[in-house]
Amino acid sequence: MASETEVIGWAARDTSGHMAPIIFSRRALGPRDVKFFIKFCGVCHSDWTVITGEVYTPTFPVVPGHEIVGVVEEVGSEVTKFKVGDHAGVSTYVNSCGSCRVCERKLPQHCKDVVWVYDSVNPADGLRTYGGYSNLMVVDESFCLVLPKNLPLDGAAPLLCAGATVWSPMKRYGMGKNGDRFGVVGLGGLGHIALKFAKALGMHATTESLEFVVPTGT
Ligand SMILES: [Zn+2]
Ligand SMILES: [Zn+2]
């Protein structure tokens, strides 16, 4: 019988912003689970706002990270999307109710019972969730993306939050047709990916960004 796996991560234990090593457990591999070694995890500003308590007070310790990519080590007996050696990615959530209106429309991120990838408790195993600033992930294959092997893993990681955030409205509003022009105000983590998408979709892409002048002193 499979047993829980010991995982090493980096955790915040208070709102100071300091991180320190932590050892915790991921659940034993279930029939629909994928286990993968984490190779890269993006650093998103949301991670910072959670661990510093800017938006709400989390339950510490918190292992952040929600742009998680890696290589599949083991799959459960009922897994159909993955095999050992495949590249896998996990974003901001790892479970949902599976039966409400938005889950049926394959939009589990809007489910009222969504389970976040960290600082949640997953009813599937009763364990607290810990994110991608760690070395190994165990997740239901429904919440794991197959990444093409020709996509470099380090470049793929930011697509899982920053990329999805800008891709979603671009897709929803059908951008990239009829010679659309595209502008980004503020060339940051999201904006630079949006520009790349716009260019790939054949749009005329422009950005406008403020320049900050840092005094150098004398
Ligand atoms: Zn639901
Ligand atoms: Zn994010």
UniProtKB/TrEMBL annotation:
Residues 31-149 form the Alcohol dehydrogenase-like N-terminal domain. SUPFAM superfamilies: GroES-like (SSF50129). Its cofactor is Zn(2+). PROSITE patterns: ADH_ZINC. Keywords: Metal-binding, Oxidoreductase, Zinc. It comes from the Eukaryota. InterPro entries: ADH-like_N, ADH_Zn_CS, CAD-like, GroES-like_sf. GO terms for molecular function: oxidoreductase activity, acting on the CH-OH group of donors, NAD or NADP as acceptor; zinc ion binding. Pfam families: ADH_N. Coiled coil: none annotated. This is Alcohol dehydrogenase-like N-terminal domain-containing protein. It comes from Marchantia polymorpha subsp. ruderalis.
